[in-house]
User: Fold this.
Amino acid sequence: MYLFINTASIEKIILALVNRQGNILARKKIKAKYQQSEKLLINIDKLIKSDRNKIKGIIVVSGPGSFTGLRIGVTTANALSFAWNIPVVAVKQSDFGKMTEIGVKKLNQVKTIEYVMPAYGQEPNISKPAINT
Assistant:
């Protein structure tokens, strides 16, 4: 079973459990406007319940999307991959079914554990520092 994480939107988190054939076993959509960091791990725990040992890989949306949301999702996926010693793969934001299908194909081909990087889609919009006079 694979864990799917999508934090690309500033409005919501989408989590799912997907089997090795790409079928969605459980899906959870969480309202999390600017609250991904507060709600992500709690809802992953609720979704997987005591089935943590059944999770054999992680699919994470790496972009494009919210700069902070993507960093939260990708960092969490990489940390869980490291802690649980399972592979993680990145997929681009698209139709939900295609993302899980592509992710499952990638996970089924993984030979070594590697970590993923976010793909923001544009440069971050960071304001200039204030000049103290």
